[in-house]
Amino acid sequence: MHIRILWIGKTRNPCLESLCTDYLNRIQRFVSCDVAEVPDLSRRRSLHGEELRSAESGEIERRVSEMARVVVLDAEGTELSSPDFAGWFQKERNRGTRDLVFVIGGPEGISGRIVDRADLRLSLGRMTWTHELARVLLL
């Protein structure tokens, strides 16, 4: 199995970047895993709202194979305990999932196209987290 984590833009906070790097290195000892940063289009163009989410979705879709299982981090998604998440992950391994892609949207959210494509909408809980901190929590 290969895990890919897609997120919008670079992690600007050096402390959080360091944590992401540390946890990614730990994960890579057990499973193939990488992170792909999707360009933050809000900084390049004057896009907002659905127009921005749609443009970012196009960038995300280019990085996801048709056969990949997709997990979208979504505040309205399913909340799983750590044991439940581990069980779900083991089921994915047992069913032979080759590519598992986690998607963290940008500050304006994520397009319905990507949410509809998701095999799982995963919530990190009812609290609000910054997108950069959500990266650390996912790893």
Short descriptors:
alpha/beta; 5-stranded parallel β-sheet; Alpha/beta knot; 25% strand; 42% helix; single chain; 139 residues
Short description:
The protein has 139 residues and is of the alpha/beta class.
What does this 3D model show about the protein?
This protein has 139 residues and is α/β, with parallel strands linked by helices. It has one domain: SPOUT methyltransferase, trefoil knot domain (Alpha/beta knot, 3-Layer(aba) Sandwich), CATH 3.40.1280.10. 42% of the residues lie in helices and 25% in strands. Helix 1 links the parallel strand 1 and strand 2. The two termini are 16 Å apart.
SSE map:
Elements: E1 2-8, H1 14-27, E2 32-38, H2 41-44, H3 49-61, E3 69-79, H4 82-94, E4 99-104, H5 112-117, E5 120-123, H6 131-138
Parallel strand pairs: 1-2, 1-4, 3-4, 3-5
Number of domains: 1
CATH superfamily: SPOUT methyltransferase, trefoil knot domain
Number of beta-strand segments: 5
Amount of beta strand: 25-35%
Summarize the biggest pleated sheet: 5 strands, parallel
Q: Report, as a whole number of angstroms, the end-to-end distance.
A: 16 Å
Gross morphology:
globular
**Overall CATH architecture:** 3-Layer(aba) Sandwich
Mean pLDDT: 91
Structural class: alpha/beta
Which residues form runs of ≥5 with pLDDT under 50? none
CATH class: Alpha Beta
Q: List SSEs in N-to-C order.
A: EHEHHEHEHEH
* Strand neighbour order, sheet with most strands: 2-1-4-3-5
What is the CATH topology classification name? Alpha/beta knot
